[in-house]
Design goal:
globular, 5 helices, transmembrane helix, mainly alpha, transmembrane, DUF4345 domain-containing protein, membrane
């Protein structure tokens, strides 16, 4: 079950990385960036495409190499602060774009699934 979760994370991050690399202006606009300078475009491509591609690789590697606990640690280390800061942002700057809400929902689901898998894998 954990390997499916890790591969799902890899697929989601790979798709997001590809979308951000192929259509950075559209993806930036979808999450609320209305204007980016050339430096901003470089940063957006680096973080939104490059980092997400790296995360896709890590999730796939941990699933493929059967390092489930390490993969779950990675997921929890990412999703706990992401959900915390996204929730603060939503409360502070509501209303937000639909794409932001979809991302928030996916992040919450991934966090809850990761926590459930972590709990299931605990030694009895």
């Amino acid at each position: 079950m954990a390997s499916v979760y890790l591969y799902l994370n890899a697929a989601v991050y790979l798709l997001l990385a590809a979308w951000c690399a192929v259509a950075p202006a559209r993806t930036a606009a979808a999450v609320g960036y209305t204007s980016l300078s050339r430096s901003g475009q470089t940063e957006y491509l680096t973080i939104y495409a490059g980092l997400q591609f790296g995360l896709a690789f890590l999730f796939a590697w941990f699933a493929w190499s059967q390092q489930m606990r390490t993969g779950l640690v990675l997921a929890l280390a990412l999703y706990l602060p992401i959900v915390l800061f996204r929730s603060i942002g939503l409360l502070r700057w509501w209303p937000v774009e639909t794409a932001t809400l979809v991302l928030a929902a996916v992040e919450w689901l991934m966090l809850l699934a990761g926590l459930w898998l972590w709990w299931q894998g605990r030694p009895g």
